[in-house]
Design brief:
Elements (H helix, E strand, L loop, with lengths): L1 E6 L7 H16 L5 E3 L14 H4 L1 E2 L2 H14 L2 E12 L4 H7 L9 E10 L5 E6 L9 H4 L8 E4 L2 E7 L6 H8 L5 E5 L7 H15 L2 E5 L2 E4 L2 E4 L3 E3 L5 E4 L5 E6 L3 H9 L16
Parallel strand pairs: 1-2, 2-4, 3-4, 8-9, 9-10
Antiparallel strand pairs: 1-15, 4-5, 5-6, 7-8, 10-13, 11-12, 13-14
Helix pairs in contact: 1-3
Length: about 280
Amino acid sequence: MKVTCIQMDMQLGKPKENFQHAEALIAEAAKGQPDVIVLPETWNTGFFPRENLAALADEDGRQVKARIGALAKQYGVNIVAGSVANRKETGHSEKDCHDQSANWSRNDRIGIYNTAYVFDRSGSVVAEYDKTHLFTPSGEHEFFQKGQSLCRFSLDGIACALIICYDIRFPELTRSLTVQGVDLLFCVAQWPNVRTAHLLALSKARAIENQMFLVCCNSCGTAGKTTCGGNSSIHDPWGECLAQAGEHEQFLTAELDFSIVQGIRSSINVFRDRRPELYSVDN
């Protein structure tokens, strides 16, 4: 499987310009005939405008589905479409609304999510994921709703999973995914340059401990006061770095040989040797 990450630079709070830029980059990346194209986190708005976020956000992923899904179909390529600031129902029921107050309206059930979408070669949505771990040091939890479910899917017959940025710091999340069977994990990010070393170390560690390929697509450039670090990377199940980007906008491509997964899991079967009856991460 040939995977190309688009390490994209974006403009804070300018979804129109960012959509146009992402479309142009996808068209260029498709010329290399990859099997999968990957975008970074919140590429429609940057991470993240505090003012007018609701107005800037996509509405239930409609633009992403229409425009990026169409490109997946046009070029016959799978697209892990990073994530977008996304405005949608929070999941509160009508009963919840009546129980809370007489003045509770539908608008109270609308929230902003950091949502990732994945499209197959036909342009169909095969996965949708709301970021579950919000980055409290930046106040993300004050503007976005938490996701409530994990994300596994298949691309070209390969068992895949997806996480977003800060999620990678939680090994219990990735292990929960991989014990169900995952050969390829995508991490889409807007990781700052001051902690680039952490992103590279965590990407390598998650690949090694779960014996899978890990594709991390980070953004680059400056959004507001934050400079993203780039350094997108692709690691194999041994932790070997197959490709690593620099700090500027670029494509990063690697060929993934999934026979490596079976080889390492046969020779060092950590999943067989686990002792889950001894583990507790509830506290």
